[in-house]
Design brief:
The chain is about 10% helix and about 40% strand. By secondary structure, it is mainly beta. A hairpin with a 2-residue loop joins strand 9 (about 250) and strand 10. It has helices spanning about 1-15, 25-40, 60-70, 120-130, 135-145, 605-610, 645-650, and strands at about 50-55, 80-90, 90-100, 105-110, 150-155, 170-175, 190-195, 200-210, 250, 255, 260-265, 270-280, 285-300, 315, 340-350, 355-375, 385-400, 405-415, 420-425, 450-455, 470-475, 480, 495-500, 500-505, 505-515, 525-535, 545-555, 570-580, 585-595, 620, 660-670, 680-690, 710-715. Belongs to the copper/topaquinone oxidase family.
């Protein structure tokens, strides 16, 4: 009776906890799912491991019907809760659906295609430990005159390079020297290749091909305590203060702020998930939907060194490692400002038990010191008319530490109706490294207390850096070399000499977003407004030319593959059945803010086959609930037969129907010495901006904020 009683308690907890059909699985639900599978026919398995456990989200019409009914009646019943599970057992991959309420396995199918599920922390850690007990590796370390206790190893996905048959689940182990620095990525143990069979947890291939000098540790450590004079530029400290409290409401997973409301979720693969985002039109008085579902779908990071130790480094950070799986706990007053609210996340470990990530997400209002709109008029004699409204936005943030990358993902909601979507990533362990139990956290800001008050304009309060772009920072992936000066290099070393014996390898960053836009309803169309030069040849004007707009509505998926920058124009998603009072189609524009690189790899290169979608920055496909992951559901060792480009080849109709827009922010990165030992921010991004969605500027009637009482703060002793 004990197991049944345990499940009963979990069910009662479940009944009291979730409130929306798209809420992520709770710890209790994860426990139920794990228990149900373990007591099923998998009970006798000696190798059962859980690689993905997530919500099997209800069908979209069902969710939208529930949302409409819930607005009218708070007692609207929730759709049934189900989980989708990818598990490995006895060398096979299983796709399992579990009904949580009935605690039963609905279906179990063995996946027979190419590719494997995400790696788990547990198997990666176990694989990384294998070299230290492998005599040939120990001999290689000693041959280089290094101490084994100063060596640290990490697992890397191996990719696919033309093998016809599905092989073993493998990783390659990259090793580094630590010594007196935490920046071990700057000290690679070059020339050694270790291949591990993950199912057998055994080394199956080993090669020590060449001995290369290990770069010295001097000048590599980025920790503040390790720095010595002369120091860099110093600025004055700042603080975020909202005397009247935060302006947003967190109701379960629903967030309400100003004229926005949306559902905030978490997925072990995607990380942050924004759903049913609606903006309130003050003239209409009701919310109007903009985005049904949005999240990071994939990250493709190929390196440009074809040598034996580097050719395979073509990573898919979401599909291989799990973007949400690597979410790092956010540090108050460091990762997020003092006015932030935090939300925990939960995922299933390899054994199916729930694992908590504290402070995985944060939400805060940003006061950047900018204006949302302004005008000064000198046209009236003797008068100067000035009107300014401060720009305040709401930011949802997550940090994901994937190997030696840290990504800071921001979704920024503007009162103007815009959504800015961005990411800041640190290359390395500069902020958080959770993969092997290591954790570095920034110092907490000191405690503050009010002593007296001052009156200041609101625009001067709560200053916060604007970071609504796709940004890269942190530690580069570096390669050991015998060179100590650029003049010694005669051929192509596939990178830049950053320090003695240290090459920063050329590489790309492609971050692909899945954006199921529902602009004022699910039936939308994709429009390309091309800017065309028109010559004036009939003498009707003293001008010789002007430009005009030629609009083209994409009818099929092939019409909606866009290479940004190929020709001037605008990209819009419109609702063909909704018009403004002026007769314009209601829509949203997709605006790029830099980061528009596309892949330069040849079409027949194996990494490019797997990421064939990276040649175009924008794709539009017909909505399909199962098509979430741009590189396919099974990305590890995938072959490109189930990815965004493959789906688009069916050339389905996309006019006046439910569509999904895929946007890839891309960078080509040529490292330079300023990127060493830790690179400054490199930024780009994009924005979803209203285009005839409102009848006029929705902020014109926004009343200006008056001065606020600001405490005169002093640091506690």
């Amino acid at each position: 009776m004990a197991p049944f009683f345990f499940l009963l308690l979990l069910s009662l907890e479940l009944a009291c906890s979730y409130r929306h059909p798209l809420d992520p699985l709770t710890p209790s639900e994860i426990s139920i799912v794990g228990s149900v599978i373990k007591i099923s026919h998998f009970g006798s398995s000696k190798s059962l491991s859980f690689h993905y456990v997530g919500l099997d989200e209800p069908d979209k019409p069902e969710v939208l019907a529930w949302s409409l009914g819930h607005r009218r009646s708070k007692e609207k019943a929730l759709p049934p809760r189900r989980a989708f599970v990818i598990a490995r057992s006895e060398g096979k991959t299983h796709e399992i659906y579990v009904d949580i309420a009935s605690r039963s396995v609905v279906s179990d199918e063995v996946y027979e295609g190419f590719g494997y599920p995400m790696l788990t922390f547990e198997e990666e850690e176990a694989a990384s430990a294998l070299p230290f007990g492998y005599p040939p590796f120990v001999a290689s370390v000693r041959k280089r005159g290094l101490a084994l206790e100063d060596v640290l190893c990490t697992p890397l996905s191996v990719g696919w390079f033309g093998e016809e048959k599905q092989g073993r689940r493998r990783v390659k182990i990259a090793c580094y020297l630590t010594g007196d620095t935490v920046n071990f990525y700057a000290r690679p143990l070059e020339g050694v290749t270790v291949v591990v069979d993950l199912d057998a947890l055994a080394i199956v291939e080993y090669e020590d091909r060449v001995v290369v000098p290990v770069p010295e540790s001097a000048g590599t450590d980025y920790r503040a305590a390790k720095q010595r004079p002369p120091f860099g530029p110093q600025t004055k400290p700042g603080a975020v203060v909202q005397p009247e409290g935060t302006g947003f409401e967190v109701d379960g997973h629903m967030i309400r702020w100003a004229n926005w409301e949306f559902h905030l979720g978490y997925d072990v693969r995607a990380g942050t998930v924004i759903s049913v985002a609606s903006v309130k039109d003050s003239e209409v008085g009701t919310p109007r939907r903009v985005l049904y579902r949005g999240f990071v779908s994939e990250l493709f990071i190929p390196y440009m060194d074809p040598s034996e130790e580097w050719y395979y480094k073509t990573f898919f950070d979401a599909g291989e490692n799990g973007f949400g799986l690597s979410a790092a706990p956010l540090e108050p007053n460091a990762d997020c400002p003092a006015n932030a609210a935090f939300m925990d996340a939960h995922f299933a470990g390899q054994d199916g038990a729930p694992v908590r990530i504290p402070n995985a997400l944060c939400v805060f209002e940003r006061y950047a010191g900018d204006a949302s709109w302004r005008h000064t008029e000198f046209g009236f004699p003797g008068q100067v008319i000035t009107e300014v409204r401060p720009d305040v936005s709401l930011v949802v943030r997550m940090v994901s530490a994937v190997g030696n990358y840290d990504y800071v993902i921001d979704w920024e909601f503007k009162t103007s109706g815009s959504i800015k979507i961005g990411e800041a990533s640190r290359r390395g362990l500069g902020a958080v490294a959770v993969r092997f139990g290591l954790m570095w956290r920034g110092p907490m800001v000191g405690s503050w207390k009010p002593e007296e008050t001052k009156r200041v304009p609101l625009a001067a309060v709560a200053g916060s850096r604007s970071c609504t772009k796709v940004s890269l920072t942190g530690i580069l992936e570096m390669k050991g070399t015998r060179y100590t000066h650029a003049d010694q290099i005669a051929g192509d070393e596939h990178g830049t000499l950053l320090a003695r014996n240290t090459i920063g390898v050329y590489h790309d960053h492609f971050v692909t977003f899945h954006l199921d836009l529902d602009v004022d309803g699910p039936a939308n169309s994709f429009v390309r407004s091309k800017l065309k030069t028109v010559g004036v040849t009939d003498g009707s004007s003293r001008r010789r030319s002007y430009w005009t707009v030629a609009k083209e509505t994409a009818r099929t998926e092939a019409d909606a593959r866009v290479e940004l920058g190929a020709e001037p124009g605008e990209l819009l998603v419109v609702n063909p059945s909704k018009r403004t009072r002026m007769g314009n189609l209601v829509g949203y524009r997709v605006i790029s803010h830099g980061a528009t690189a596309a892949s330069l790899l040849s079409d027949d290169d194996y990494p490019q086959i797997r990421a064939s979608y990276s040649k175009n920055q924008v794709w539009v496909t017909a909505y399909n609930k199962s098509e979430k992951w741009a590189a396919g559901l099974y990305t590890d060792e995938s072959r490109g037969d189930d990815n965004l480009a493959a789906w688009s080849r069916r050339n389905a109709g996309i006019e006046d129907t439910d569509i999904v827009l895929w946007y890839t922010a891309g960078f080509h990165h040529v490292p330079c010495q300023e990127d060493f030992p830790l690179m400054p921010l490199l930024s780009g991004g994009f924005e979803l901006r209203p285009a005839n969605f409102f009848e006029r500027n929705p902020l014109i009637k926004t009343r200006p904020n008056g001065p606020v009482l600001l405490p005169n703060c002093s640091r506690n002793p």
